[in-house]
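User: I need a structural model of 3'(2'),5'-bisphosphate nucleotidase CysQ from Sphingomonas liriopis for a docking pre-check later this week. Nothing fancy, just the predicted structure tokens so I can convert them on my end. Input:
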Amino acid sequence: MDDVALARHIAETAGELLLTLQRSGLFSGNALGKAGDRTANAFIMEALRHTRPDDAILSEEERDSPDRLHARRVWIVDPLDGTREYGEGRVDWAVHVALTIDGRPVNGAVALPGVPMTLCSGRPVSVPASPERLRMLVSRTRPAREAVAVAEALDAELVPMGSAGAKAMAVLRGEADIYLHTGGQYEWDNCAPAAVALAAGLHASRVDGSPLTYNQPDTYLPDLLICRPQAADRVLTLLAELRSNPAAGSK
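Assistant: Understood. Predicted structure tokens for 3'(2'),5'-bisphosphate nucleotidase CysQ:
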């Protein structure tokens, strides 16, 4: 099985396990989220160690090891992205499985088990046409100030949604046009979504326009822009203006 097929298969199987756990009725709320994190992580780690024993792994739910910094091939996974949404019985949560080579997100899969749907870099989708008014994805609980300011400047509609993976895939699915995040993330939050977005021809970068680079000593990767290519320059320009004049975004 090649890397793309493996990423997809592992993400989908982890998603099926999470759905089974969710439907069992044995857990709810925070307890369900914690059980889901542990269950999905245990499966993904075992699957990757068995099928790719020579590769390194970075998982949100595992103790980090500096050994990964010396590896060319590193799997970066988020066993359950959107733990809160999962615990609440919503559908906007995801499973992220990505492979980086020399820090680049070359392959990835994002499973949306509650939809259900899995998108991966090996099967790039055709992004539906955009409506006349742009739509900006933001956190449903804590929208970032800069994202809201950019949306206002673009006269874009705000679309609240849960996990990072769900938001990024919403752009691919034609449910929105821009996913801008400046509220702080880690590599596992956006590596698989970035790999899938780039494979589909979308723009994916840091908010200063620089490439997304993974397998770094510090796994904190605080900002992200995934959007339709034709919107990227305008969004990046607005962000640069906001950062050079912070007071403009607070009006």
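Before docking, keep this in mind: The mean pLDDT is 93.
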